[in-house]
């Protein structure tokens, strides 16, 4: 499965700790992230992550391009709802694409835990069917 990690500045420590806690669940998957978030995760884990640009520099849009092509299976995007983000339109566009494509996205630790536990149980088999039978082909 293709999994992306994104975290706003004040949520990066939370994301790193989350990934450390569930590191074994992410092994064997193809991992992506925005720049700084991915660097911080790789410094604290043994995971290999393909890093895009920083979110404000286009990283959210790069992940969004994968979502638009239905090439992303799960996004963990720990957002900071109390801080205005200069690239808010990019964030809203990414979340809208996830809704269009039916991509599960967690915007906080609580939802992240539910989705990662589902991942551990193998509850994402339906995503394999989506990849196998892409609509419109």
From TrEMBL:
The residues that hold substrate are 8, 12, 34-37, 54-55, 87
Residues the record marks as active site: 60
> SMART domains under this entry?
MGS
> Is Amino-acid biosynthesis given among the entry's keywords?
no
- A Gene Ontology biological process annotation? methylglyoxal biosynthetic process
Q: What does this protein do?
A: Catalyzes the formation of methylglyoxal from dihydroxyacetone phosphate.
Q: What is this protein called?
A: Methylglyoxal synthase
What is the primary gene name for this protein?
mgsA_1
């Amino acid at each position: 499965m293709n999994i992306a990690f994104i975290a706003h500045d004040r949520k990066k420590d939370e994301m790193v700790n989350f990934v450390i806690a569930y590191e074994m669940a992410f092994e064997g998957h193809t991992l992506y992230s925005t720049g700084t978030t991915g660097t911080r995760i790789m410094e604290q884990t043994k995971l290999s992550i393909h890093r895009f640009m920083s979110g404000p520099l286009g990283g959210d849009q790069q992940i969004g391009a994968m979502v638009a092509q239905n090439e992303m299976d799960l996004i963990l995007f720990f957002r900071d709802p109390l801080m205005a983000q200069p690239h808010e339109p990019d964030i809203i566009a990414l979340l809208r694409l996830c809704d269009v494509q039916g991509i599960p996205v967690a915007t906080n630790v609580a939802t992240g835990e539910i989705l990662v536990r589902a991942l551990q149980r193998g509850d994402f088999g339906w995503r394999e069917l989506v990849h196998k039978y892409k609509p419109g082909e």
